[in-house]
Design a protein that fits this description.
Layout (H helix, E strand, L loop, with lengths): L7 E11 L6 E8 L4 E3 L2 E3 L6 H13 L1 E16 L2 E15 L9 E5 L1 H7 L7 H10 L2
Parallel strand pairs: 1-6
Antiparallel strand pairs: 1-2, 1-4, 2-3, 2-7, 5-6
Amino acid sequence: MNPVGTTVLAAGCVLWRRSPYDDGIEICLVHRPRYDDWSYPKGKLKRGEDPLTGALREVLEETGFRCAPGARLPTVRYVAHGRPKQVDYWAAEATTGHFVPNDEVDRLLWLPPAAARNRLSQPRDRPLVRALLAAVGP
């Protein structure tokens, strides 16, 4: 447990794939029933865990997908449950795997960028869509 005032460190990925329908990309969003929200796959780092390693672990645990990490994306900082939280993000292309609902994540959607941006529950997560598009191109 982190002492009060200590920043909670977390990491995740803006997971993406080439659309099976057109030349665009799709972004993966996960629904967490505990919070009833839509977000990117992410989670707290284990003690001493490298942020990128933690991000890839969280993507696999929450989505069932392995991925190829790409560009580092902006870090998101906010206060959660009265404590500062820092989430480091990477762009990551989905490679293999498939989603199986679990206790942490009960639904997964692949959406075009504009739809993903609109579906995100937290406004602080929306700028990451633009950052992803800048990193991976059209």
